[in-house]
Amino acid sequence: MKKLSFVKEKLKRNSRILFLSGFLLASFTSLKAQFVSNYSFSQSSGTYIPITGGNNMVLSPTATAGWDSEFFHNGANGTNGTTSAGSFAAFPIGFNFNYNGIVYDGFYMSTDGALRLASTTPSAIGSLGASVPISSTTSTAINLISAFGADLSGSLRAASATRTSGSPTFTLTGTSTVLAPNVAVGMRILGSGIPAGATVTAISGNNITMSANATSSSTFATAFFVEPDNISYQTSGTPGSQVLTVQWKNVQRWSGSGDKLNFQIKLYEGTNVIEVIYDAIASTQVTTASAVQVGLKGASNTDFNNRLGTGVTAWSASTSGTANNSTIAFQGTAATGGEIVPASGLKFIWTPPMACTGAPIAGAVSPASQSLMPGQTPANLVLSGFSSGVAGLTFQWEQSSDNNTWSNVVGGTGATTTTYTPPAYTGTAIYYRCKVTCTNSSTDSFTTSVLIGSCAAVSVPFSETFSGGVLPSCWVSQNPTSTDTSANVRWKFTGNADYGANLANNGRASGTYAWVDASSPYAGIKNVELLTPQINLTGLAAPYVSFEWFKNHSTSTSTTVSPSTYDDNKLTVDINDGNGWVTIFTNTTNAQAWRTEGIALASSYIGATVQLRFTVDKNVGTNPYFYDDILLDNVEVKEAPVCFVPQNPTIVSVTSSSANISWTAPSTAPSNGYQVYYSAINTAPTATTVLDATNSVTSTTNTATISGLTANTTYYVWVRSNCGSGSTSSWSSSLNFYTGYCTPAPSSVDGNGITNVTFGNSPNVVNNTTVAETGNYGNYSTMIGDLPAGVTSQVSVTYETGYTYDTKIWVDLNNNLVFEDAEALYTGTSTSTNPTTLAASITIPASTPLGTYRMRVGGQDVGPVTPCYNGTYGTFEDYTVNVTVAPSCLPPSGLASSSVASTGATISWTAPSVAPANGYEYVYSTTNTAPTGSGTSTTATSVPLSTLSPSTTYYYWVRSNCGGSTSTWVSGSFTTLATPPANDDCSGAVLLTPGATFAQNPVTGTTIGATLTNDTTATTACQLTRFADTWYSVVVPASGSITIETKSATGSAVTDTVLGVYTGSCGALTSVGCNDDDGDGNFSMLSLTSANGITPGQTLLIGVWNYSSTNNGAFQVSAYDASLSTSEAVITKNEVKAYPNPFSDVLNISDIKNVKSISVIDLAGRVVKSFDKPSNTLQLSELNSGMYLVVLNMNDGTKQTLKAIKK
Asked: Hey, is 821 helix, strand or coil?
């Protein structure tokens, strides 16, 4: 596996040390401010001439793989490459090279196409930025030149191949076959299962002959083909006009088997010109397109001079980069758009600027002024328009309290750069300017000054809509009690809230409100504060504060609330007139609508200057969590209205053509009632909106009915008071409702989800076979099935998922377009058999009026199942139920199968509330076709079935016989077990003949039809999960050692086994060892010696089972010992297991030695717990029930993700 985003780079040491005469260079001999952005760029064509006899980077003789993001240095083993940071000497350039105004005498280079200028004396180095050298934020990735900044292998790499243990043939496969013409005799070949020092001795088509035999087999092999001079450098020419050439020869993209990349970076003595020249070929088979960083980087991320190119002219007509991560496209003919490569001999040339002369142009500073509250940090002061294209400029920011007397700035950051961040504003006005100096002429120029001053008190009426997506001017967002720098401890002004406050619930777009994200951190976070500017209340006879807020604490993103068990967050509003903060509002309640609050201020505030503070407490109690975002909008300070806004508008009920709404009357009820405006467009009404019969209704009470609506449409509603004589209040915050059923939209499903739903009685029976629908939801409400009231009826639901699915069936019994909890008539779980049919039973209440009702069938991989689900792994379908009169002869219910074996099973049912006079009739068949005639009679409620066929699905039907009439048939199904293998029990163990290797005497076994042993002495310590097992035996050879191993069988679904080994006899077994995953993949391997208590000639009994209860099939098992021959087998493994699964409070990790850290992530993608130094036992008692992803971050940089379920 390739690397993560923090990929390190390796360094190599040069075998030849070039000597620089006289003195140490690469010192800061010039402190003039220089920028590589001032270098001029040109391009031309020439001839690519490889260097010979240079100083080569040499892969370590003990290496088992090729280079991968190493960097090289001139210290011990530096030419071998490393990824470890340290203090290392650089390779000598051979002359003094001035780069960006500084003289250097040394350089480092990386496998990923870049070099860094430095001193030959040791200095700190840890990375050259890996595949993104110019945009990298790594502190040592500075003063860089990148010719081909991409993820390179540093040699040729075969990503797909095969090798066979004991054979010298290495065969390229897949897209790696295009690599064959680039491989040459004499190259080193490295990789797993390849002996150290092996070389290529012959090439025939895609078959590579090695100088040594492979030590293990693989059909997914990888290898590196390394030349002595893949990466090298050379200084040539005469003193005064020397050239340093750094060369990458026959390297490739990590994922690009078949690339043949050759390029050089050249540094010219005297002129200090930089040149890059190319001779590159892209793979003709790899479809991957790459983005290459090419250009220069100075001492920071903001100083760059790079190239940007797309399409077929990406290299021939590149343009100046617009950001430090600008790239040039690179790809082969197989990629979309065809080949994009640099022409052979293409040169990119950067020339340093000329020195400045005379008085420089000072430029201008922006912004020209800022108004701030005390304690706020000003925006960056940015200098632009100063002298460009010249070297030798310096910058110094200055400050003044009177715009007359100036001194160097105190505090802040960037005082000698073109961007200065002043310190926090103290409340006293301050001026800033920038002094620009040409050091060659010792002449200064000054910019016009800019002012940072205090915010003036705003006048009334005052309003803030938060529509800019940023903190409004003169507002303050702070958290005075927390030092945490997370954005989640302060107010946000863009982005979307989540869960119950998401867009589907609050209805307002990102950037149109202020909000506090309930996400972590929340423990101890109590003062998330938002302060208004100072507000002068002069002119208000009755000052009044109003605002809108939204808080809907729910664990679901659905518009159907899923109440949370965690503490509610709290919103508090305070006011301060200079005499301290006074609370005027506090609330922790929830609603599914924006609420408008209005607070009349005390008369003591008349004429005062005040400030408001909105505070969210994210840790009110002892059980905070991340579901409870709080939103704020439309803050106003104004004259108290005489006609007050109705409060808390609420949707009471909805049908396909109407809606009932209600609200709370204001403290002073309006004399002329209320006006209700509705629209299918979410645009709030204004004072000029014309109300008529098509868009509004009136009411004299606090409820209203809106009729004549269009089905399956979203409507928005506003309410206002009518106080007569043309006086109306402001409109309330909006509500929205949908004149239809919510549409579930699972983002994924296992397999095909629900593939059949069958229900109903003649003449209206639904038997609907489907595949996975778009959006994993199918609306089949035009299909109608008859079900009687007061009778238990069967609904058959078939899944093709391969996993258990929690299932609910709702019937909207009150036809209010909402599937309520009380209308969930069935809750159950399917089996993981694929396919599997769930025989669900529902009872329509006897009091239900006759007629049609919507039914929803829903399943989720992990519940609880909700009707409007939009998470992962779900499947939903809608139908219509026609409720009919209960029949006189009631059908049985609760059909079940038990004691299922290979040739028999028992079917049973529950008698109806009125038992049938003549008992029952039953029919069974291997065809899923309902019977048309009569069946076999019985008076019992269970029947044993015999002489059945193994591994066969049977369908059965049962009905009541009431004498003069019969009920409808109800059905079920079961699948008989396979015939158990002969070695299903310990007593039938198959004898294994020991060989020298696994391949000598393997036996193919099977788990199909096997049953779990009933031998209580067959215990294992390595794995508590045990399913159907089969048994084997072996006699310990004379050496006293034996290895027992399992492997895959061709075409089998078995990929993971467990084995236990015992001494003694069946029924009296003693465990001497067990193993889960030490073989290939997830197969098992256990080596035993006398240390395990075994002796030569002793018979061992072996139980082998599939780790999974599904995916049964064949596998191979073999016993062997090297003493029986001179050959040896080497098995390697690197997989980790988590158990038990599901778990209660503790999750165990099978092998922790290679695990660096562990992250536990919930289904919303949030990290809910981390372990930086994990042990084998993870304490997870505080987690809620549900599914989690356990991400194991390995020491080698790879990741392994496990799925675990908390009970």
From this structure: helix
Cβ neighbours for 760, distance < 8 A, ≥ 6 positions apart: 766, 784, 785, 786, 787
Residue after which a domain boundary falls, among 351, 384, 402: 351
Which range marks the domain in which residue 1151 is found?
Answer: 1138-1206
User: How would you classify residue 890: left for phi > 0, otherwise alpha for psi between -120 and 50, otherwise beta?
Assistant: beta
Question: In 703-775, which residue ranges form alpha helices assigned H by DSSP?
Answer: none
pLDDT of residue 1048: 93
Q: Look-up: residue for tokens 């797309």? A: 310
**340, 311 contact by CB (below 8 A):** yes
Both tokens of residue 474? Answer: 């003169």
1041 and 1145 within one domain: no
Instruction: Please tell me whether residues 779 and 654 are part of one structural domain.
Output: no
**CATH number of the domain encompassing residue 854:** 2.60.40.150
Tell me if 676 sits within 8 A of 698, measured CB to CB. yes
Q: Decide: residue 930, CB within 10 A, 0-12 exposed, 13-18 middle, 19+ buried.
A: middle
The number of domains in the chain is 9
pLDDT digits (tens, 9 = 90+) for 594-630: 888 999 999 999 999 999 999 999 999 999 999 999 9
Per-residue DSSP letter, 1103: E
DSSP string, 488-540: GGS-BSSS---GGGSHHHH---TTSSEEE--PSP-TT---EEEEPPPEE-TT-
What does DSSP assign to residue 421? B
Q: What is the pLDDT of residues 981-1002, one digit of tens each?
A: 889 999 989 999 899 899 999 9
CA-to-CA separations, 705 to 677, 698, 944, in angstroms, rounded: 11, 9, 60
Are residues 543 and 477 part of one domain? Answer: yes
pLDDT in tens, 841-886: 999 999 999 999 999 999 999 888 999 998 899 999 999 999 999 8
Cβ atoms of residues 1047 and 1080 within 8 Å: yes
415 domain residue, yes or no = yes
Can you spell out the DSSP letters for 115-127? EEEE-SS-EEE--
Kindly report which listed range (350-354, 449-453, 1157-1161) carries the lowest average pLDDT score: 1157-1161
pTM here is 0.49
Q: What is the phi-psi region of residue 334: left when phi exceeds 0, alpha when psi lies from -120 to 50, beta otherwise? A: alpha
277's enclosing H/E stretch is strand 274-281
Domain end position, chosen among 975, 994, 1015: 975
Residues 96 and 242 in one domain: yes
What distance in Å separates the CA atoms of residue 619 and residue 626, rounded to the nearest whole number? 11
Q: Considering the domain boundaries, does residue 1133 fall inside one?
A: no
Could you give the C-alpha distances from 532 to 516, 526, 595, 616, 803, in angstroms and in order?
16, 19, 20, 15, 54
Q: How far apart are CA 50 and CA 245, in angstroms?
A: 10
Q: Which CATH number do you get for residue 720?
A: 2.60.40.10
DSSP class per residue in 623-671 = ---SS--EEEEEEEEEEPPSSPPPEEEEEEEE-SS-EEEEEEPPSS--T
Residue 175 phi/psi, 5° resolution? -70, -10
CATH code of the domain in which 627 resides: 2.60.120.260
Asked whether residue 262 falls in the same domain as residue 175, the answer is: no
Co-location of 658 and 704 in the same domain: yes
Nearest to 281 by CA among 305, 318, 256, 314: 256
**φ/ψ (deg, to 5) at 1062:** -135, 150
The CA angle 655-659-661, to the nearest 5 degrees, is: 145
Average confidence (pLDDT) over 239-248: 97
Residues 429 and 537 in one domain: no
In order of 685, 1003, 1026, 1059, 1148, the CA distances from 1022 in angstroms are 69, 24, 11, 9, 12
Instruction: Evaluate the CA torsion angle 1189, 1195, 1197, 1198 in order and state its sign.
Output: negative
Q: How many CB atoms neighbour CB 909 within 10 A?
A: 23
Please tell me whether residues 1001 and 1103 are part of one structural domain.
yes
